[in-house]
């Protein structure tokens, strides 16, 4: 009946498979006993060794598995395995063939790890070769030359029994000149999950699909209304372009049942790229040209996340562990985490038009200790994504418990499975590595379900934050097979976090001493958080004078969030350069509002005004700045009757303003004066400007000499007038009558009167009045924005 069933293409039942294997063993027992009593043949002796090396060089040929389909076979399927064999020895291999071997099932998840590490060939553990026509033959394998193979075998020929994880081996047997008998010269092992029927209770599986990148935007923005963003390079454009890392993650993820885990900074950066943007290129910037690429990627992402769960990390994915270990005692560091958390939801909703979950915190590699948990929850998150190699089982459970664990204080640790989460961290560019990783992942998943088939559990898988394209492709291949299998069903992260905790699962957070040293070495140092504090302090001092604070506070605030990003791990030099660039840009902005340098100023009198010019090269105006002018020798020169004077100023964007101070000099000579800008709360703003004031007052003796000279001029004029009058009278007497003389005198009197009136009119109007150095001027001219010239003179 069993043979008839095989002929018809149906696989025998597990009971029949067990009977077949048991019968074969019983029938072969006498023969095996006889063989054991005979001297071992060279071939039998060689094959019986536990290691290929001990079997006369059985490690000679490298076997690689490039593909295995289907990854999870069922009844009626045909298993196809392809790969390569390469002779690494010095002698040719002849009469060789590649065959498939099916070993026994593994009994636990730990046994899978043990079997994966096992080297060499063992005929008992690796099982018999399927043989027959299901082999591929090679007449000769030349040293150093790889040859490909492809074998297809119906699943029924594998003689699989009960549900479980089977060890599957692909071996090459052949002969060499040194050992002219057939023996196994190389083998590659993998696992074959076997669950042809739907499991009674499926494991609920949550797979996190991360869309996270490094920091790409600088703190700098353009001066226009749109504040054109400036990118460090075009790396982000390459990542979202067709075939790029983020483009592949999006394309693969949209076909899977996953929970999207997104860094809002990535969304903000790509969104900024959809409009006009600039890219730094050495000391210059160029115009970005990838707006269409950014629009396409965002549109496809928005479509992909509809009706899917989206978890938003705090903006720029801050390094929680670095904060906990090196930053929490630096003033303001935790406030940056709170700010990054608050802005996350708005960013995701604005760009993707979906409402994300924001109550999850994800420390690096899920490694936690009490301080990490405390910092993670300080910004409002009440769920921490940990990993089972950190929050380890201490009660020797025989099964994998639910991911959700209450760890006190209303906080839930969502413990990701370490074996499944790290399955694809290696080099997946090699087809052999990818195939083995997929099969081992599926084996671990099935064995998790078989640990307690009547107990439904929730399992969370949190892979590496930024998988490479090959890693993402391998992850997608494994997930596709898992989601088409019979033992797993997909579940959102929120549902896994809300699942009933297993009362036997450990809930004790490990101590700080257990935090991995390899991760601790990659943390942001305390100096990084101190630099961020310095930048924040300077920003706080700067923003109070701005009329439009958001133009500066928002981009610089987001830049400081990026300075704390997890993506800087392992990139300490780049992180330091980025922090310095943010501080440098803020310094540049601050320097745009400054005092104009002044040279020596001359005062020609006891009282005069001194102008000081403030220049604002920002686009926006500044307000609430206080300009203080201080006499460094107040006994010789007073400012508004005291040591110093202050004036509140407001300067429009792109303009300068001159401010005048009244002074009183008590002595001649040079006096040092200092001008300094202050914020409204009394904090110094920018560097001070110091200049000399040279007082050159006229003395009383000089004034007397001048007055005497004027008096002599008046007397000389009067004498000339009387002489003229006498000459006119004498002329009149000589010419005639007394009447003519009288008329002439009357005429002269009228002329004098008219002249007097004209002189009075000129005095009132100021026309044609000759100037004198001691006369007071109307006012000081408007101050130029440029530095004043040498020997600047300020009149009374």
Overview features:
796 residues, alpha/beta, six-stranded mixed β-sheet, five-stranded parallel β-sheet, 22 helices, disordered N terminus, disordered C terminus
Report on the structure:
With 796 residues, the chain is an alpha/beta fold. α10 crosses α12 (370-378) and α11 (333-352) packs across α19 (550-563). Residues 1-57 and 740-796 have low confidence and may be disordered. The strands form seven sheets. The chain has a six-stranded mixed sheet with strand order 26-24-28-29-22-30, with no helix packed on it. The relative contact order is 0.08. It is 37% helix and 25% strand. It is built from 22 helices and 30 strands. Residues 756-772 have a biased composition (Basic and acidic residues).
Describe the structure in brief.
The chain has 796 residues and is of the alpha/beta class. It contains 22 helices and 30 strands. The strands form seven sheets. Strands 26-24-28-29-22-30 form a six-stranded mixed β-sheet, with no helix packed on it.
Mean pLDDT: 85
Sum up the overall morphology in one term. elongated
Poorly predicted runs? 1-57, 740-796
Beta fraction of the residues?
25-35%
Q: Please give the order of strands in the largest beta sheet.
A: 26-24-28-29-22-30
Biggest sheet statistics: 6 strands, mixed
Radius of gyration: 46 Å
Number of strands: 30
Oligomer, anyone? Answer: single chain
> Helical percent range?
25-40%
Treating each run of at least 4 consecutive H or I residues as one helix, how many helices?
A: 22
Distance between the termini: 125 Å
Q: From the helix content, strand content and strand pairing, which structural class follows?
A: alpha/beta
């Amino acid at each position: 009946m069993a043979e008839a069933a095989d002929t018809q293409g149906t696989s025998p039942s597990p009971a029949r498979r067990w009977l077949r294997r048991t019968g074969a063993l019983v029938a072969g027992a006498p023969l095996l006993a006889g063989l054991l009593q005979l001297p071992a043949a060279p071939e039998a002796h060689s094959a019986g060794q536990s290691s290929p090396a001990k079997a006369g060089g059985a490690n000679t040929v490298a076997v690689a598995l490039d593909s295995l389909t289907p990854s999870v076979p069922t009844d009626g399927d045909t298993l196809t395995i392809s790969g390569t064999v390469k002779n690494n020895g010095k002698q040719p291999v002849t009469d060789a063939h590649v065959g498939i071997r099916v070993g026994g099932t593994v009994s636990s998840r730990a046994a899978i790890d043990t079997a994966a590490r096992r080297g060499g060939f063992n005929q008992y553990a690796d099982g018999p070769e399927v043989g027959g026509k299901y082999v591929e033959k090679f007449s000769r394998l030349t040293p150093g030359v790889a040859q490909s193979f492809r074998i297809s075998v119906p699943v029924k020929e594998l003689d699989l029994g009960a549900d479980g994880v089977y060890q599957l081996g692909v071996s090459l047997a052949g002969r060499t000149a040194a050992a002219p008998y057939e023996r196994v010269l190389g083998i590659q092992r993998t696992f074959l999950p076997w669950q042809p029927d739907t499991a009674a209770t499926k494991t609920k599986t949550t797979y996190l699909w991360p869309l996270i990148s490094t920091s790409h935007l600088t703190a700098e923005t353009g001066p226009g209304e749109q504040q054109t963003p400036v990118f460090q390079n075009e790396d982000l454009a390459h990542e979202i372009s067709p075939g790029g890392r983020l483009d592949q993650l999006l394309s693969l993820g949209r076909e899977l049942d996953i929970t999207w885990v997104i860094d809002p900074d990535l969304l903000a950066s790509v969104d900024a790229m959809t409009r006009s943007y600039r890219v730094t290129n050495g000391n210059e910037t160029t115009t970005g040209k990838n707006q269409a690429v950014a629009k396409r990627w965002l549109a496809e992402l928005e479509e992909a996340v509809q009706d899917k769960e989206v978890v938003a990390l705090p903006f720029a994915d801050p390094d929680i562990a670095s904060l906990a270990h090196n930053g929490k005692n630096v003033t303001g560091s935790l406030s940056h985490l709170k700010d990054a958390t608050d802005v996350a939801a708005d960013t995701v909703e604005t760009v993707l038009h979906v409402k994300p979950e924001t109550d999850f915190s994800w420390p690096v590699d899920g490694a936690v200790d009490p301080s990490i948990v405390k910092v993670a929850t300080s910004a409002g998150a009440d769920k921490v994504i940990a990993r089972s190699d950190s929050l380890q089982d201490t009660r020797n459970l025989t099964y994998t418990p639910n991911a959700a664990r209450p760890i006190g204080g209303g906080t839930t640790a969502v413990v990701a499975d370490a074996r499944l989460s790290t399955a694809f961290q290696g080099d997946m560019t090699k087809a052999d590595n990818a195939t083995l990783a997929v099969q081992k992942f599926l084996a671990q998943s099935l064995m998790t379900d078989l640990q307690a088939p009547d107990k439904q559990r929730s399992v969370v898988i949190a892979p590496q934050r930024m998988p490479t394209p090959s890693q993402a492709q391998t992850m997608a291949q494994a997930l596709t097979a898992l989601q088409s299998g019979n033992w797993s069903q997909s579940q959102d992260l929120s549902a896994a976090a809300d699942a009933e905790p297993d009362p036997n699962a450990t809930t004790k957070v490990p101590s700080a001493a257990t935090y991995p040293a390899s991760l601790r070495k990659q943390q942001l140092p305390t100096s990084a958080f101190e630099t961020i504090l310095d930048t924040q302090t300077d920003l706080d001092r700067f923003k109070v004078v701005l009329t439009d604070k958001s133009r500066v506070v928002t981009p610089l605030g987001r830049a400081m969030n990026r300075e704390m990003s997890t993506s800087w791990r392992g990139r300490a030099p780049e992180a330091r350069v980025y922090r310095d660039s943010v501080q440098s840009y803020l310094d540049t902005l601050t320097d745009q509002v400054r005092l104009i340098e002044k040279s020596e100023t001359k005062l020609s009198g006891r009282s005069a005004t001194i102008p000081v010019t403030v220049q604002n090269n920002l686009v926006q105006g500044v307000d609430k700045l206080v300009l203080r002018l201080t006499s460094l020798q107040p006994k010789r020169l007073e400012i508004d009757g005291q040591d110093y004077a202050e004036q509140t100023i407001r300067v429009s964007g792109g303009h300068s303003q001159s401010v005048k101070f009244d002074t009183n000099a008590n002595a001649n000579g040079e006096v040092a004066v200092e001008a300094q800008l202050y914020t409204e709360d009394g904090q110094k703003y920018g560097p001070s400007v110091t200049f000399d004031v040279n007082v050159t007052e006229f003395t009383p003796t000089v004034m007397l000499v001048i007055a005497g000279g004027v008096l002599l001029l008046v007397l000389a004029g009067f004498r000339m007038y009387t002489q003229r009058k006498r000459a006119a009278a004498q002329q009149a007497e000589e010419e005639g009558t007394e009447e003519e003389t009288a008329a002439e005198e009357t005429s002269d009197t009228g002329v004098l009167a008219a002249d007097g009136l004209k002189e009075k009119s000129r005095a009132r109007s100021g026309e044609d009045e000759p100037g004198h150095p001691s006369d007071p001027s109307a006012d000081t001219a408007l101050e130029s924005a440029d530095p004043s010239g040498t020997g600047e003179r300020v009149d009374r």
